[in-house]
Design a protein that fits this description.
The chain is mainly alpha-helical. It contains 6 helices and 2 strands; from the N terminus they run H-H-H-H-E-E-H-H.
Length: 144
């Protein structure tokens, strides 16, 4: 299969549509800016617990990551705490308001996804979930 294959083009087109919806905040309630919410999601998922880890995780530069973290902290959604192993290092942690925001957004996203798959059989949903996970895993760079 190559980049001109009809299936590849269809998947790329669908992924662009999903990204646009996410960028518009269509899969969240809109109360929190999408860029800030991406920070909360990364911290909640354990993908990043410092600003230094956050930047590459989100595919942004360090100054942008710092500004987004500052915005999340000033909004009361995130806090910086001293690392128990290295007091010079600050780790990021969701506040209770941040945890509530992430939980509410996840519930909303799951409802939207369930509604989109409402007419699917259980087998179709299971196949889609399996194939989507496999696809996303294949997009990740190989571990070094």
């Amino acid at each position: 299969m190559d980049e001109h294959d009809a299936s590849t083009i269809a998947v790329e087109t669908a992924m662009v549509r999903i990204r646009r919806r996410q960028t518009r905040g269509a899969l969240s309630d809109g109360a929190i800016p999408v860029a800030v919410f991406r920070v909360l999601d990364a911290v909640a998922d354990g993908a990043a617990d410092t600003v230094g880890e956050l930047a590459p995780t989100l595919g942004i530069d360090q100054p942008r990551a710092s500004r987004l973290v500052a915005q999340a902290v000033s909004s009361g959604l995130l806090e910086r705490v001293a690392d128990q192993r290295d007091g010079r290092r600050a780790v990021l942690r969701l506040t209770s308001a941040g945890q509530d925001a992430v939980a509410a957004a996840r519930t909303g996203r799951r409802k939207a996804m369930a509604a989109a798959m409402a007419g699917w059989t259980a087998a179709e949903r299971a196949d889609f979930a399996r194939l989507l996970e496999r696809f996303v895993d294949a997009l990740d760079p190989p571990a070094e």
